[in-house]
Write a structure and sequence with these properties.
single chain; mainly alpha; elongated; 52% helix
């Protein structure tokens, strides 16, 4: 038995999927912009998800949104932008915009 773990995905499959997503990047960015606009009104404020203050929901949401700062040109809108900056400072976790591609 091999010491190698087979994750069920060949490198060619990963490269093919990457190329497919890259070709769809304009469409996917437009879809992301729509989703971010839908998300903004769900926040209680530009600092917290819930009206009572910080919660585990903030940890979850920030951990989902932060990687999106790796994508050059993603616009979060005023509320989410303020939320991301606030969470970045409070969590002492910088956003990735300086290395966005």
């Amino acid at each position: 038995m091999s010491d190698c773990v087979n994750l069920g995905t060949d490198l060619e499959d990963i490269e093919e999927d990457y190329e497919d997503k890259y070709q769809q990047s304009s469409k996917l960015r437009a879809e992301l912009a729509t989703r971010l606009k839908e998300l903004a009104p769900m926040l209680a404020s530009s600092e917290f998800v819930n009206p009572h203050g910080p919660s585990v929901d903030d940890i979850i949401l920030f951990s989902e949104l932060r990687p999106l700062t790796l994508v050059k040109g993603v616009r979060f809108g005023n509320v989410l932008e303020a939320y991301m900056l606030s969470m970045s400072v409070r969590a002492d976790m910088p956003l990735f915009r300086h290395v966005a591609m």
